[in-house]
Amino acid sequence: MGLFKTLRIALRALAKNKMRAALTVLGVVIGIAAVTTMVSIGQSAGALVKGELEGFGTNVIIIQPASQERAGVRSGRVNTLTSKDAAAISNQCNSVFATSPVVGSGGQVVYGNLNISPNEVWGVGEDYLRVRNWTVRTGAFFDSSQIEKAEKVCVIGKTIVKKLFQTSSPIGEKVRINNKPFTVVGILEEKGANMVGQDQDNVILMPYTSVRRTLNGSSFDDVHIIFVSAVSSDKMATATSEIKQLLMDRHDINPGQNADFEIQSTTEIANMLGMVTGTMTLMLAAIAGISLLVGGVGIMNIMLVSVTERTREIGIRMAVGARSRDILLQFLVESVLLSCIGGMIGFGLGIGASIGITTLINSFSTGTDWPIIVSIPAGIVAFLFAAAVGVFFGFYPARRASLLDPIDALRYE
Q1: Which end of the chain is more exposed for a tag (fewer CB within 10 A), N or C?
Q2: DSSP helix, strand, coil percent of the chain (3-state; round to 5)
Q3: What is each CA distance from 150 to 104, 136, 179, 203, in whole angstroms?
Q4: In terms of residue numbers, what domain contains 240?
Q5: CA–CA distance, 301 with 307 (Å, rounded to integer)
Q6: Per-residue pLDDT tens digits for 214-247
Q7: How many domains does the chain have?
């Protein structure tokens, strides 16, 4: 008997008990939908993290003083980096594209009778925007001459413009930062909020020399962080190695001794977060996959019931010439058909659920824009797994039906 005819008979048999067939595939539907949804959401989270890290800068390497320990307990960081270290990295490391020393501060920005507390008050170098892949929308960024002279100039984010200046242009205006006057020379391009909801436009940038002398009252050359951009993503590891060797030499640290600085790249952070999101996605998909096994047990149970109910039919078919393999194929096709129908419905529901959940997250969260990603490969794998479930759990009932004795089957009541 041909496969097409067997398929038609299987469809006719399933159509006789539509409600039972629907309840039978429910477990498979839930399993496929859950796997598709979980993997899609996990990939969306991974894409969001990757996008946020790309927004942090281009091939960024972060250098900061090493954490100090006393009696095995971390006791903060002691400044060990200088602006000369940043200059040496820029001049001597061939895999480095640009560097910028960073000096942090805090306080309020006041203009007239209005004030705001920025999220970031940073003193930076002239190449900071190149490292972070930022641009100035209006005005200009300060140059090396202004940094060398420690001029009291600043570049502000869009949020500060809205809060303090509203409709007037801030270029050339003076603001007070910790009661020290600074002239606004530029406005940064709007970036919006990051993935944790922090406003990236509530920021003010100044020459690091100005922050160090004017705001922090320091006459030393130390800096808090050095931002470095590698020439390409392929050169990240090489740039990191060059920077480490250069700083070890400059800080007179011998091989085997602990470095007084720490180097971390956005690539390492991305890989770490990728491993976390990937592991969570696999765990959730594995948990969701249990539903497929439950659905498979349901298919086996119903197929065994079907064999019992159709014993006389099996006997009649054998009496008119049907072979054991024809009976085996018929019930196996019915089982696989149930699984595949459930897989298609579940895949469709999974696509809808992943789109709906992502849209819901975006509507309730501030500052995040989760990309809508539908994992077609995950759906295909889940669908194939559903078909395999149909074969695995349907084989025993089909085998049992094919081994029935025709005479006993005809006498069955």
Answers
A1: C
A2: 55, 20, 25
A3: 15, 20, 17, 19
A4: 81-259
A5: 10
A6: 998 888 888 999 999 988 878 888 999 999 999 9
A7: 2
